[in-house]
Amino acid sequence: MARLVKCTEKGPYKLEAGGEAYYICRCGLSKEQPFCDGSHKKTRDEEDGKLYIYDEKGRVEIVI
């Protein structure tokens, strides 16, 4: 079943535990959930207040 998840953050959350640093995905695009794989770089030029869908072909802006 498909679902729509709105993510507003464009970068990961840094978590430090046991002397190690971990980066938690907040953009929703990482294929290594819950960890960041750098996919957030695709969101850098998104405009605030606009809705985008990402698929294997890239990004599509949704006009409502």
TrEMBL record:
Pfam families: zf-CDGSH (PF09360)
Entry-linked InterPro entries: FeS-contain_CDGSH-typ, MitoNEET_CISD
Gene Ontology cellular-component annotations: cytoplasm
Domain of life, source organism: Bacteria
Domain (Iron-binding zinc finger CDGSH type) ranges: 10-46
SMART domains the UniProt entry points to: ZnF_CDGSH (SM00704)
Gene Ontology MF: a single term: metal ion binding
Keywords assigned: 2Fe-2S, Iron, Iron-sulfur, Metal-binding
Record-given protein name: CDGSH-type Zn-finger protein
